[in-house]
C-alpha cells in the first residue's frame, strides 16, 4: 500500500502570554481566531486556533500559551520556520504593516521566491511568501482585506537531526514529491493548494529545546477516520511507533516521532471547527470538551482573560 498526504493540516507551537499571542496573530497578522478551547491534556492552559475565515485544514496554527514559561531554543527536531502564503503583490503591504508595528524583518530568497522573515513576540520564526496557489481568505479584520490577507500555510522548514532519514520519510512514507535542491535546502511538495511545500535543511545543527517560541509538532492531513486508520497501520509498518487514535474534538489525531526527532501528527480533516459553534460565531467563546464542562467555572477562573482587538 502506498499513501500520500495532501499536505499540512495544522502546526502547533508553544508561546508566552495569551493576550500577546492574540494581539499578534489576530491584531497584526489578521488571522481569524477560529477556536478558543483548552489543552485536553492540561485544561488549565488555553489551546488557541487561528486560521482563515472557515478554519480550513492547511490554514490553522494553534498555540499553547504559557505565561512566564522558559524560553525554548529553535533547532534540530523541530519545525524551524513556519511559512505563510499571501496573494501576489501583497508583500509591500506587509512590509509597511510590519514597519508600522515596529516588527523587524529580513528579505529572503529561496527557490526563486522572495519572502520576508520575522518573529512573533515570543520568538517563533515566521515567513510570508507570495503564491498564486490557494483560496483567497475572505476574513477581513481592520486594515487587512482579502486582497492582502494571509491565505494559509505556504509550508514549513524542517530542522532534522538526521536529514537523510527525514527526507526518506517525506518522500517514501508521507508521499511528498522531491522537486528541487538549492544551497542547504531540499524542497518537497504535496498535492494540496495550500500547506504544500516543505523545505528540509540538509545539514544538522544543534538540537532544539522545547519551550516558548518553538513549534511543538506539525500535523499532516488525513481525509477521514478510515484514511487515518490506514495511515496508522502504514506508518507502523514502516518502522515507526504510532500512538492510538486520540479524539481532539475538531479532528482525530495520531502521533509519531520520526527519526530526525520531529514530532509528526496525522489529523483528520473532519469534523472541523463549526460542529460546536455556528460558522459566524467561531472563536468567540471558550469551548470545552464534554469531559471538562462540569469544571468550567474553575477553568475560567484559572485562565488569563483574552480578547480579539484591533490594533490600528
Automatic annotation (TrEMBL):
Record key words, sorted: Dioxygenase, Oxidoreductase
Name listed for the protein in its UniProt record: Ring-cleaving dioxygenase MhqO
One Gene Ontology MF term: dioxygenase activity
Domain VOC: 7-131, 152-269
Superkingdom of origin organism: Bacteria
Organism taxonomic ancestry: Bacteria, Bacillati, Bacillota, Bacilli, Bacillales
Keyword Ribonucleoprotein: no
UniProt-listed CDD domains: PcpA_C_like (cd08347), PcpA_N_like (cd08346)
Pfam families: Glyoxalase
Amino acid at each position: 500500500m502506498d499513501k500520500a498526504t495532501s499536505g499540512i493540516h495544522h502546526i502547533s507551537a508553544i508561546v508566552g502570554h495569551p493576550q500577546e499571542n492574540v494581539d499578534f496573530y489576530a491584531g497584526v497578522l489578521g488571522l481569524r481566531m477560529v477556536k478558543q478551547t483548552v489543552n485536553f491534556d492540561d485544561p488549565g492552559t488555553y489551546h488557541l486556533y487561528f486560521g482563515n475565515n472557515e478554519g480550513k485544514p492547511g490554514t490553522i496554527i494553534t498555540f499553547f500559551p504559557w505565561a512566564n514559561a522558559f524560553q525554548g531554543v529553535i533547532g534540530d527536531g523541530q519545525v524551524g520556520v513556519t511559512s505563510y502564503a499571501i496573494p501576489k503583490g501583497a508583500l509591500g503591504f506587509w512590509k509597511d504593516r510590519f514597519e508600522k508595528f515596529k516588527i523587524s524583518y529580513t528579505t529572503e530568497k529561496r527557490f526563486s521566491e522572495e519572502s520576508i522573515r520575522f518573529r512573533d513576540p515570543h520568538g517563533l520564526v515566521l515567513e510570508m511568501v507570495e503564491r498564486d496557489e490557494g483560496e483567497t481568505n475572505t476574513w477581513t479584520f481592520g486594515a487587512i482585506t482579502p486582497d492582502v490577507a494571509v491565505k494559509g500555510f505556504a509550508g514549513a522548514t524542517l530542522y532534522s537531526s538526521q536529514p537523510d532519514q527525514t527526507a526518506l520519510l517525506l518522500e517514501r512514507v508521507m508521499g511528498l514529491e522531491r522537486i528541487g535542491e538549492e544551497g542547504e535546502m531540499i524542497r518537497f511538495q504535496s498535492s494540496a493548494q495550500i500547506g504544500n511545500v516543505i523545505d528540509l535543511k540538509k545539514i544538522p545543527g544543534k538540537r532544539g529545546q522545547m519551550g516558548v517560541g518553538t513549534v511543538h509538532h506539525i500535523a499532516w492531513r488525513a481525509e477521514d477516520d478510515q484514511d487515518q486508520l490506514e495511515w496508522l497501520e502504514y506508518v507502523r509498518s514502516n518502522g515507526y511507533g504510532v500512538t492510538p487514535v486520540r479524539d481532539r474534538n475538531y479532528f482525530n489525531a495520531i502521533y509519531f516521532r520520526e527519526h530526525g526527532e520531529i514530532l509528526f501528527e496525522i489529523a483528520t480533516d473532519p469534523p472541523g471547527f463549526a460542529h460546536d459553534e455556528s460558522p459566524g460565531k467561531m472563536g468567540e467563546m471558550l469551548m470545552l470538551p464534554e469531559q471538562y464542562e462540569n469544571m468550567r467555572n474553575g477553568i475560567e477562573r484559572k485562565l488569563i482573560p483574552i480578547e480579539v482587538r484591533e490594533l490600528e
